[in-house]
Amino acid sequence: MLDGRRGWRFEDDPMDPCWCFGEAGAARLVATVRNGEFYVHDDDNERDTPFPVGSTLIVLWLDENEPKHLGPTGLQIDLGAALIPGRTERWLQECLTDDVQPPDPTEGDEDESK
Fold it and tell me: How high is the pLDDT of residue 104?
């Protein structure tokens, strides 16, 4: 169900495999199966929502809630501003429009004042 949905990726952790939704490695929504139920954890609001496995309500919930979790997290914005000034604003703007990876911090910064 989540395979092929934009923004979702599978994390193959042997102890707790899950599907994560979020940009640039963030896990703003995390989907798991526990005790025969499908759970979606909303990390922004610290809330779990359970669904019976196979329920059509899951898709309706995702369609309503995924748009609320697009874009970088507050932590990503804060870290980006602290670690890569000069390129952060451009990267954040690109994240809002495309599937863009964060800039490589090992690359030399160009003088932004020119």
Answer: 63
Would you say residue 1 lies in a domain? no
Query: Is 0.90 surpassed by the pTM of this model?
Result: no
**Domain span at residue 45?**
8-69
Task: Give the pair of three-digit tokens for residue 39.
Answer: 């759970």
pLDDT at 102 over 70: no
Identity of the amino acid at 59: V
Three-state DSSP state, 12 = coil
Query: In the chain, how long is the greatest CA-to-CA distance?
Result: 59
Asked, for residue 39, whether it belongs to a domain, the answer is yes
